[in-house]
Design goal:
By secondary structure, the protein is α+β, with helices and mostly antiparallel strands. The protein is 53% helix and 17% strand. It contains 21 helices and 14 strands. Helix 1 crosses helix 21 (509-520), helix 5 crosses helix 13 and helix 5 (90-111) runs antiparallel to helix 14.
C-alpha cells in the first residue's frame, strides 16, 4: 500500500471528524486534539513537532500509539516540574530570556539569508594544508624560574651543550624532569591555555632549532623542536570543516552588520574609548553607546575598532532590528521557545531526582558491574612503534636496517608509539596482517595518506575485563545514570496512575496520529 493511498484512506475514514481535504489533509487537521493531559491539549501540530525529532526507524518500531504515550509521559513530567516550582526561579527567567534572544537572532539571520555555507572538499583540503592542523610537533623544554638564571644556560648552549642534559640539570619544573625534558607530540590547540604560547612557538620552528627564552606562566622557557610529524586530513576533517564554516559565516555576519550600521546611521567618535565612562563612543538612530557600555561589550572579545564595530553590530543593532521586525511575536518561534522551555523544565526535574539518588552501596555496585561486564570489557589492541618515511625507498631501507640491527640509534627518535584497536586487527590488508605478526618484528613500508610508514609490533593485548577497583569511577557514574532513569520511569508511572482521570484521549487519536505521520514522511 502506498503512503499516499494510506493517507487518502485514513482521510476518508476521518472526513466527518477532522474535515480533511483531498488536496491538503495535513493542514486541515493541525488543530485537531489528540489527547488532553490536565489543562494541556496535545494537538496534531504538537505531535508532528515531536516525531520530527524521532529517528525514522524508531517511529516505525514504536508506532503512533506508543509515540502518543511518550508525549503524554513527557507532558506529565513537565507539569510536575511546574508544580514543584522549578520554572519559577529568577535563574529560569534569565535562561528563558537568553533562549528567546538566541531564537530571535537565528530567525533574523535566516530572514536575511545568512545560512550555514556549503564547503567544497577541495576547499577543506586546501585550508588543511596551509593550517597548523596538518602536523604535530615534538619538543623538549628547559625552564628556570628567575631571569637571572638564563645567561648561564644560554652560554652553555652556545658552547654546544646537549639541550636535554642541560634541562635535566637546570629545569625547575617537575613535569619536565619527570619526562626527561621530552614533552612528546602535540597537535595544534591541544595544550592548556596557560602554556599554549609554547606549543604555538614550536609550530613556527624548524626541527633542531632552539627558541629564544619565553616568559610563560610560572617561569622562563626554552624550546627545542625535535620532530615534526604529518597528520592525516581525515583525522582533522571535522575540525577543519568547523573552522572553514565559521570563517565563512563570520564574513556573512560582518557584511550584514555593515548594512545595519548604515540603516541605523551609526557614528563613532574619534576619541574612541579614551574618554570618561559617561562619554559617548558611538551614536545611532535610537540611542548612544557610552565608554562604560562599550568596555562591557568588549569584555573577553579583544580590543580595537574592528572588534568594537562587530560587537556593536551583534549586541546593539541586531536586537534593534529584531524588535523593529517584531520577530519575537512569530508563532513558530514561540512554539519553539515553548518546546525548549519544556525540555529545560524536564532537565531540571531530572536534576532534582538525581540529587535524591543515594550513593551506591558496595553490593549494589558489584551486582551492576557483573550484569554489565560486556560494556566494560576492553577490546583487543596492539601497541606498535611507527615511523613515517620520506618515500618508499627510504622505508624499505629502514626496515632492512632495523631487521639487521645496523646503526639504528639515529632512527629511534623518529619512531612514535601508537595503539591500534581491534578493528585494525580484523582487517584483511597489509597493515592488519602486520599487526597480527609476532611481537618485535618490523614491517613495511605501507602507503598511507601521509606517506609511507614502517611498523614494529611491540605487544598485543587480548580482550580484557578490568577489575571493578580499576574502573570504579566509571561504573559509579553508569550506576547513577541507571538509577536516574529508573527514578524518572517510576515517577512517570506514578503520575500516570494518580492522574489517570485527567488524561483524555480523542476517540480518533491514533488514526489522526497515523495520518499526521504519513504526511510527515
Amino acid at each position: 500500500m502506498s503512503k499516499r493511498w494510506m493517507g487518502t484512506a485514513l482521510c476518508a475514514a476521518l472526513v466527518g471528524l477532522s474535515g480533511c481535504a483531498e488536496d491538503d489533509p495535513a493542514v486541515a487537521t493541525e488543530d485537531a486534539v489528540l489527547v488532553e493531559v490536565g489543562p494541556t491539549a496535545i494537538r496534531v501540530a504538537d505531535y508532528r513537532q515531536f516525531i520530527a525529532r524521532v529517528a525514522p526507524e524508531l517511529r516505525a518500531e514504536y508506532g503512533a500509539e506508543k509515540l502518543l504515550e511518550a508525549i503524554v509521559e513527557q507532558t506529565l513530567l513537565v507539569q510536575e516540574a511546574k508544580r514543584r516550582g522549578l520554572g519559577a526561579s529568577m535563574e529560569f527567567a534569565q535562561w528563558q530570556t537568553q533562549a528567546q534572544a538566541q531564537l530571535v537572532q537565528q530567525a533574523l539571520y535566516k530572514r536575511v539569508g545568512i545560512v550555514p555555507p556549503e564547503v567544497a572538499e577541495e576547499e577543506l583540503r586546501a585550508y588543511f594544508q596551509r593550517s597548523p592542523y596538518n602536523r604535530r610537533v615534538r619538543f623538549s623544554l628547559l625552564m628556570v624560574r628567575e631571569q637571572e638564571q638564563l645567561p648561564e644556560v644560554l652560554a652553555a648552549l652556545a658552547g654546544g651543550a646537549d639541550f636535554e642534559e642541560l634541562s635535566m640539570r637546570h629545569s625547575q619544573d617537575s613535569r619536565i624532569l619527570e619526562r626527561q625534558a621530552d614533552m612528546g607530540y602535540h597537535r595544534w590547540g591541544d595544550t592548556m591555555a596557560s602554556h599554549a604560547a609554547l606549543t604555538e612557538r614550536a609550530f613556527s620552528m624548524q626541527v633542531g632549532e632552539i627558541s629564544e627564552p619565553m616568559q610563560v606562566a610560572d617561569g622562563y622557557f626554552l624550546i627545542k623542536l625535535t620532530d615534526m610529524h604529518p597528520v592525516s586530513f581525515e583525522q582533522e576533517r571535522e575540525t577543519i570543516q568547523r573552522l572553514v564554516m565559521r570563517e565563512k559565516l563570520g564574513r556573512q555576519l560582518l557584511a550584514y552588520y555593515d548594512t545595519l550600521h548604515v540603516r541605523y546611521n551609526v557614528r563613532y567618535e574619534s576619541d574612541g574609548l579614551t574618554g570618561s565612562p559617561e562619554a559617548v563612543v558611538a551614536a545611532y538612530d535610537g540611542g548612544v553607546l557610552t565608554v562604560a557600555q562599550a568596555r562591557e561589550l568588549l569584555k573577553s572579545q579583544g580590543e580595537g575598532e574592528k572588534v568594537l564595530r562587530r560587537e556593536v553590530g551583534r549586541r546593539v543593532l541586531v536586537p534593534l532590528e529584531t524588535a523593529r521586525l517584531a520577530l519575537a511575536a512569530d508563532p513558530d518561534l514561540q512554539r519553539e521557545l515553548e518546546r525548549l522551555r519544556q525540555m529545560q523544565l524536564a532537565r531540571r526535574l531530572q536534576d532534582a531526582l538525581q540529587a535524591q539518588v543515594p550513593p551506591p552501596n558496595p553490593n549494589g555496585l558489584s551486582l551492576f558491574y557483573e550484569e554489565h561486564k560486556l560494556r566494560y570489557t576492553a577490546p583487543a589492541e596492539v601497541e606498535v612503534r611507527r615511523l613515517l618515511a620520506r618515500d618508499e625507498a627510504e622505508g624499505t631501507a629502514i626496515v632492512e636496517r632495523m631487521r639487521a640491527g645496523r646503526d639504528t640509534t639515529e632512527l629511534v627518535d623518529r619512531f612514535v608509539s601508537v595503539i591500534y584497536g581491534s578493528g585494525a586487527l580484523e582487517g584483511d590488508n597489509p597493515v592488519s596482517r602486520a599487526l597480527r605478526a609476532d611481537e618485535g618484528t618490523f614491517h613495511g613500508p605501507f602507503a598511507t595518506d601521509n606517506g609511507y610508514i614502517v611498523l614494529q609490533v611491540l605487544r598485543r593485548r587480548p580482550d580484557r575485563l578490568p577489575p571493578l577497583s580499576e574502573i570504579r569511577e566509571q561504573v559509579e557514574a553508569d550506576w547513577a545514570t541507571a538509577q536516574l532513569q529508573a527514578a524518572v520511569k517510576e515517577l512517570a508511572a506514578s503520575l500516570r496512575q494518580r492522574r489517570a482521570n485527567e488524561i483524555r484521549f480523542s476517540p480518533d487519536a491514533v488514526a489522526l496520529a497515523l495520518l499526521a505521520t504519513s504526511h510527515g514522511e
